[in-house]
Amino acid sequence: MAIGWLAVLQMVPWSDVIKNAPRVADGAKKLWHTVAKKPSLVPPADTVISVQQSPEGQAIAALRAHVLALESATHDLHEQMLASSELIKALAEQNTQLIRRAETNRIRLLALAGLTALVAVIAVVALTLALAR
To answer: For this UniProt entry, which segments traverse the membrane (predicted)?
Structure first.
């Protein structure tokens, strides 16, 4: 199973991911600011609709009830959109931090590999000099 994940991770173009991480974070912040600036639609308080006996009055009452239901649904959708955009913003920020840490670890790994190679060369030279005496 680990080999499958390793293959998938090796196929990811990390240089592109690292280059685009700030753009993703900026896009998420812009989305959050855009959505947060929009006024929240407050559903109107339920108004008591007098039931009239005429068919026109019943049709008007039904339309008013339908409009109230639509306004309530719109308010719920707006709240969900706010929550979703906040989540996207948080995920983009976490992604940026993860990319920074991965890049830092990559640089440290390269430095450690270079240091290990240098120590190996010194050990081989020291061993060769010790055997030559």
So the answer is: 109-132
CB half-sphere exposure, 68, CA atoms < 13 A: 12
Looking at this protein, which amino acid is placed at residue 93?
E
The amino acid that residue 89 corresponds to is: K
Q: What total number of domains does the chain contain?
A: 1
Environment class of 89 (CB within 10 Å of its CB; exposed 0-12, middle 13-18, buried 19+): buried
109 vs 117: CA distance, rounded Å: 12
Where residue 9 falls among pLDDT bands split at 50, 70, 90?
A: low
Q: Give pLDDT, residue 8.
A: 65
Specify whether the CB–CB gap between 100 and 67 falls below 8 A.
no
Q: Which domain holds residue 98?
A: 2-132
- Which among 104, 98, 92 has a CA at the least distance from the CA of 25? 92
CA–CA distance, 74 with 63 (Å, rounded to integer): 16
The first and second tokens of residue 125, run together, are 């030279």
